[in-house]
Design goal:
The protein is α/β, with parallel strands linked by helices. It is built from three helices and twelve strands; from the N terminus they run E-E-E-E-E-E-E-E-E-E-E-E-H-H-H. The longest helix is centred in the last third of the chain and has 8 residues. It starts with a strand and ends with a helix.
């Protein structure tokens, strides 16, 4: 099964909305909105982006001006630049990279699981009344 990867060359200029259902590498200029919800967007070393970006994963080797939202990861590599806010559960910024903005590392559905696990040890009412919640798991493990 081949994975499709589309390249936008460095002489190409796009203004408007860019949507796709395959991985994309941009070496040119894009202004507007980029949406690749289930795919990887790579901004090459020559890429210059002035856009709101929405993708599964974003790899930045060039310049991005605008907010970046990724469902998996944003990776700003050496010499890459992002001026804008990042929303992603995982963010990597290389030592030589430039970043100006805020980072919101929101977790996906996994955030609800620890709450359900924490609710189980609190079930014995006598133990909950006499001991702090943190001591309950240790008591159960030793019993």
């Amino acid at each position: 099964m081949e994975k499709d990867i589309v390249n936008i060359g460095k002489s190409v200029v796009i203004k408007g909305e860019l949507n796709g259902s395959e991985d994309l590498t941009i070496e040119g200029h894009v202004e507007g909105t980029i949406q690749l919800k289930e795919h990887v967007l790579t901004i090459g070393p020559n890429g210059r982006i002035k856009a709101q970006v929405f993708a599964k994963s974003v790899i930045v080797l060039g310049e991005v001006t605008g907010n970046v939202t990724a469902s998996e990861k944003v990776d700003i590599r050496d010499n890459g630049s992002v001026d804008g806010d990042i929303i992603s559960p995982r963010v990597a910024i290389a030592e030589g990279a430039h970043f100006r903005g805020s980072v919101d590392m929101q977790r996906k559905a996994g955030g609800a699981q620890p709450q359900a696990v924490a609710a189980k040890p609190a079930t014995p009412q006598a133990a909950a009344a006499s001991q702090p919640a943190a001591a309950q798991p240790a008591q159960k493990v030793g019993a």
